[in-house]
Structures
1.
Amino acid sequence: MAIKIIDQPFDPYQELQLYQNSTLAHQGAIGATSIFIGTMRDFNQGSQVTGMSIEHYPGMTEKQLALCVEKAQGLWSILDSLIIHRVGTITPNEVIVLIAVWSSHRGDAFDATRYIMEALKSTVPFWKKECLETEAERWVMSNTSGYQ
Amino acid sequence: MSIKVYYFASLKEHVGSSEHELDFIQSLTVTEVWLQANAELVLPRNTLAAINMEYVEWDSLVSDGDVVAFFPPVTGG
């Protein structure tokens, strides 16, 4: 399992390749790889958005992400996982988050990926502040309520 | 007893500071920590609290050396 918080743009496909080549355990047992990539949109709640900054609580962020993975491991059979999340200044089309889950079977991989993503959105201490086309700024004040 | 209090995101702007140090004599709950540190300020609805990087309820007791954090609902991903 790997968790990375980074403040620079990253290529999720390159990160996946690197992880698969260098770190991934259980190579022979893997039958499914599920990947979620979240990118920044240029609109939200009826406004054009030109950029955003993401703040986080260093330490608690990593701790809560590890907890998301631990809970997923209790529900599904997971062989390995990789989570990368951006912080700092972001522009539209850039990747915000990558979640990859490796499992022997697709059902476990699909469900665990979605669980980790929904748990991240509802429990991990990141906060987005949007820059609008009008040059105004606003905090994003609500998110989804978790895996259902 | 002494603790550190951190604020994040919109709550940091609301408080006007990212952290406070608080000294106290008898045990405090998380609610009492907020009241001692920010007596003049209304606590925004839906504010979350953590002690030592774990989510806690507002009646949780704070111990010497703890780090308490207050922040708005999270919006990552």
Note: The first helix of chain A runs from residue 12 to 22.
2.
Amino acid sequence: MTGQPQPGLTGEAGLAGQPPGGLTGPRRAAASGRSALRRLPSPGRCILIVIGVAVAVAAVYPHAFTSLNPNTIDPNAILAGPSARHLLGTDEAGGDIYTRIIYGTRLDAEISLFSVAIAYLIGVPLGILAGRRRGAISEILTSLTGGILAFPVVLLALLVVGSFGASAGTLIVIFGLAFFPQVTLLARAQTMAIYGRGYILSARAAGLTERRIVVAHVLHNIAGPLLVLVPQLMATAILAEAGLSYLGVGVQPPAITWGSLLLDSKNYYHADPLYAISAGLVITIAAVLLLITGDMISESMDPLRRR
Amino acid sequence: MRTPRLRPGTIGIRLARTAAILVVISIMVFLALRLTPGDPAALLLGPQAQGQPGYQAEIAALHRQMGLNEPLPVQYLIWLKGIVTGNLGHSNQNGASVAGLLFGAAPPTLFLIGISLVIAIPISILTGTLAAARRSGIADQIVRALASLSLATPTFWLGILLIVLFAVRLHVLPATGYVSPTVSVGQFARSMILPVATVVVYLVGVLTRYVYTEMCEVCEQDYIRTQRALGTAEWAVLFRYALRNALIPLIAMIGIQFAGLISGAILVEQVFGLGGIGQLMLQGVLLKDYPLVQGGVLLITVLVLVITTVADLLSRWADPRLA
């Protein structure tokens, strides 16, 4: 399923969410940047960073974590339980489940990273454009994003994948298109909030060009709140990939994603529960860690939230 | 006398925007179905018919029957004309009326979403408020951890786990299938427990996080500090003063979540074999049943738009600052 709670989806809420009479603009961003650095070595963060690095290594050099080949099958060990050689046992063809999970990391990382990148490349410019002033452009963009948000992602994906065939590339484009409205709405709300502040007026009075204002003030100040959404959308991409795999329109073999493993394990809940549970748990753990990362970023941004 | 909170202009702009979104989506779906590879006639006949004598003639006849020989704009206008006159067309697969198919499949989906919302909203308000009331306390930590966990669990996987536990191992609930409440209320309830539980777990995760964020923001405002300083009981501060303002964005949030709920319902219906709109659409997309998919998407979009518009107007009515 898609959709995360996003504080500040509307311009009004974004305004209301600002600390009353707090630091404004660049000063506030600089302050949170400093304290974010100071808070870096907390144990929770260290664990997250270590896991993040491990996942990155698994995505780039999967053989660093396993000596087995994900597509080697062992006809003598079909749906075998865990052993020294097969940490999480083997699947229906005798493939090593642990190895297949490690090798699935790469496509999941690619799908979640690139789809979110596409969403931001489209969403941020449109959001700033719509947030700068009210008018026809803002109205059209709001309707467009509203229309895409009103459209269930799974249906969109089924329509496209059903015809173009499933590959990581198709999924990246679909998720990018499905996610960009959320980015647009958030960027728009934040931009509107910033344009309501005094320092934009001062910058204009000081003779700064509009382009300079957008780059130096708007982009600089909306970057933080926008960053919070990145891990959330990545988690959504991983979950959506799993959902589409389950419907049979995910990546096709021999490509491996965590979703495809979950699909393969579908019929063995009784015969080999560890198989089905480990495939689902990997997805859950990855998504939880991403959500926690998002919460941590969000907390480090807001001086009032920190306790 | 109070001045009217909703100006007719606001409502007019909302309705115009809703209509524009509907037209855009109808064109997008129409083109998405036709411009992507895959011929519905060929899919209907199946791969085994290919190359047999008379195959091409059969395809051509089916195309004529499905109205696919007309130019695209004409096809679109014919479809629009049908909608205006209340005719959504007939399924390519078996000629059944699309409106009838959708109407028949609607109850399981609507019951699933409706019951889940009714259960999930009060739970989320309670858990979100409790967590926000004791910021950084144990209740806060636990509630937020559980909310993140429920969001991160693939919905359909949770559904399968529930089936394995309650149907396969414990034999207390049916694994799949839907029983209409007009047939047997008891069996209807039994058939809905697991699907609803699956959706509720997800919804409570989403909504709790949202209530929590809103409550934290509201609790930092001056009027709450004033209430506390006046010695108002903490529960009254939370539930009588803070919650009111925190719930306004929640109304709009539920509207926004609705499209996501439909996505989730497609998966959950598939797991539990409820035979709802989601399953109907899945089948339609895979077989490129143009009229069925177009009609279904139209129905879902209208539903989502009506709900988001009502939610938006409701929150503007509740909060005059937004109107």
Note: The first helix of chain B runs from residue 8 to 35.
